Amino acid sequence: MALYEHVVIMRQDISPQQAEALNEQLKTLIEEGGGHIAKIEYWGLRNLTYRIKKNRKGHYSLLAIDAPAPAVKEMERQLSINEDVLRYMTVRVEELDLELSPILARRDRDREDRGPREDRGPREDRGPREDRPRREFDEAQA
């Protein structure tokens, strides 16, 4: 069987649960075709570089697939008739990368760097408004 990486972008109007449901449909299609999905990553709602079908954002998912070509063709056929799918791309690869993708790895690293809100200390309080100096309004600016 061949190895593939598949990225799908879904409309911004659908919920994350609907996006996950579509991923499960794809998994079922591949398994019915005699393959299996080694990894599914839901990247969440992300900005698009340019508008696609009047959408500025899309739900992204990455799938690592080990399946025969006819199963992948059927999956692509199903995606092409699904109105919730904006774009998809399937690329054949030499080996599957089962580690976290760079997008999710960066997101996790950013969360670790910041830490929980309590660990970051209190917000800097500027004090009551009446203690701050008043700014003068310049008549020439008006």
Task: Describe this structure as you would to a colleague.
By secondary structure, the protein is α+β, with helices and mostly antiparallel strands. It is 30% helix and 35% strand. It contains 3 helices and 4 strands; from the N terminus they run E-H-E-E-H-E-H. It has helices spanning 16-32, 69-81, 102-114; strands at residues 2-11, 36-52, 55-67, 85-93. Strand 2 and strand 3 form a beta hairpin. Helix 1 packs antiparallel against helix 2 (69-81). The longest helix has 17 residues, at 16-32. The model has no long low-confidence stretch (mean pLDDT 85).
The N- and C-terminal alpha carbons lie at a distance of 72 Å
The number of distinct helices, counting runs of at least 4 residues, comes to 3
CA gyration radius, whole angstroms: 23 Å
Principal-axis shape equals elongated
Spell out the helices and strands N to C: EHEEHEH
* Main beta-sheet strand count, sense and barrel state: 4 strands, antiparallel
Which strand order do you get reading across the main beta sheet?
A: 2-3-1-4
Structural class: alpha+beta
- Spans of at least 5 consecutive residues with low confidence: none
Estimated helix fraction: 25-40%
Percentage of residues in DSSP E strands: 25-35%
Q: Please, what is the average pLDDT?
A: 85
The number of strands is 4
